[in-house]
Design brief:
Elements (H helix, E strand, L loop, with lengths): L1 E5 L3 E5 L16 E5 L7 H17 L2 E6 L4 H5 L11 H9 L5 E5 L3 H4 L3 H10 L4 E6 L12 H11 L2 E4 L11 H9 L3 H8 L4 E7 L13 E5 L9 E7 L2 E8 L11 E6 L10 E11 L7 H18 L1
Parallel strand pairs: 3-4, 3-6, 4-5, 6-7
Antiparallel strand pairs: 1-2, 2-5, 8-9, 8-13, 9-12, 10-11, 10-13, 11-12
Helix pairs in contact: 5-6, 7-8
Length: 315
Amino acid sequence: MNTFRMKYNIEITNYSPYNNPDGLPLGGRGAVATIGSFDGVHQGHQFVVTQVIEQAQKRGLASMVVTFPNHPLKVLRPDFKPQLLTLAEEKTELLKKTGVDSIALLEFTKELSLLSAREFMQKILKDQLNVKVLIIGYDNHFGHDHKTFADYVEYGKELGIEVIQNKELPADFKASSTVVRNALNEGDINTANKVLGYSYYIKGKVVNGFHVGRKIGFPTANVDVDEDKLIPMNGVYCVKALGHIGMMNIGYRPTLDNGPQRSLEVHLLDYEGDLYGDEITIEFITFLRPEQKFVNIEELVKQLEIDKKECRKYC
């Protein structure tokens, strides 16, 4: 693996032997590439990347994914709060698993936003990334002038970049980042995971909590997650973390009157140890029930025992 920076704040990582001793991207061979936000790296994204890899192998070129580590709207609208399915590091991890040769992280900047589609194809794809073939869909757009797929094809002919349309998933399988976001916001973990092709997960640091769980026999780890990461709807979930089944509560702990502070707490079944200060990855398996207010702690504990049994059943 070799990582280096280029003009226009491009960080390219090669996972294959295409990099030569001089550091030239892809050893000068050129690449078959696709470009997009790839938020979530869901099955639709994976399907496109597979096509890129197949075309690259047929043509003796390297395969490449060009994506953004930051959300474009955060640059154009500083007050914008994205709800990302994958943070930059997570997106890179998932793309790497597809087997693609290179990932080019193109930081979105004001300067980049001013490039026309043709300028983007020439200055970024051709001059910097040595793209020979670009695979995109008819609804893909880049450049401030919002050109069409036909325009990209025409510019490609002028620049020596073959632009072809990607194949689409079957019409009855709707794979999009919006579908996943909507599902998570409704607590529909099963649909989200089906579209993603893996269990949706969050990563965060275990921080100091309210210390009530330990007193009632359900010690919890309170997790602090990046503010840009989408957190599923409030409620109780069956999860997995550190190789253990877990039950996770997302919400405001109404039985304990903890006020307006939203918390993410996970109780790992059959786990003993102190996680404070550790980084933890939590995978969502299924939604168990909405968050609710109980008349007293005893009723809460009874429900937690039921939740515990449900988690064992699902996981």
